[in-house]
Amino acid sequence: MATINTYLNFNGTTEEAFNFYRKAFGGEFITLQRFGETPGCEEMPLTEKDKIMHVALPIGDNVLMGTDMPESKGKVNHGTGMSISINTDSEQETRDLFGKLSEGGHVEMPLDKMFWGALYGMFTDKFGIQWMVNYDYSQK
């Protein structure tokens, strides 16, 4: 079966965002490369060479990855077209991740028990990324 991992693009805040995500999820980066360390980027403007070309943070069986969009490629516009959905193993993990990841962001739907038998909430983090956190009570 194929594996789907999430790849996020940022306007120069990838390092800050991924340090924030690493603090929330725990673990260590399996990759962190800067444009200036990458073959083929020698002609890149000096202002972009210290930006993140690729970072990868394992989370469970998945990997959250990201990059800084070079200014020469345009701006990233985060919108309402997608959300990262997290299914947790416990009510406490749900509350912990929701609290950590929503810090400094905007909560659209506070954590609450839902009609489908889950503890669920939605927010946009301080980097403009939309998240949904869900714990199904039926997994007890």
Keywords, separated by commas or semicolons:
alpha/beta, Signal recognition particle alu RNA binding heterodimer, srp9/1, 2,3-Dihydroxybiphenyl 1,2-Dioxygenase, domain 1
CATH class of the largest domain: Alpha Beta
* Order of secondary-structure elements: EHEHEEEHEEE
Portion in strands: 35-45%
The low-confidence runs, each spanning 5 or more residues with pLDDT under 50, are none
Distance between the termini: 26 Å
Number of separate structural domains: 2
CATH topology of the largest domain: Signal recognition particle alu RNA binding heterodimer, srp9/1
Q: How are the strands ordered across the major sheet?
A: 1-4-3-2
**What's the total helix number?**
3
The secondary structure category is alpha/beta
Gross morphology: elongated
Query: What assembly state would you assign to the polypeptide chains in this entry?
Result: single chain
Radius of gyration, CA atoms, in whole angstroms: 17 Å
Main beta sheet strand tally, sense and closure: 4 strands, mixed
Could you tell me the mean pLDDT? 92
Number of strands: 8
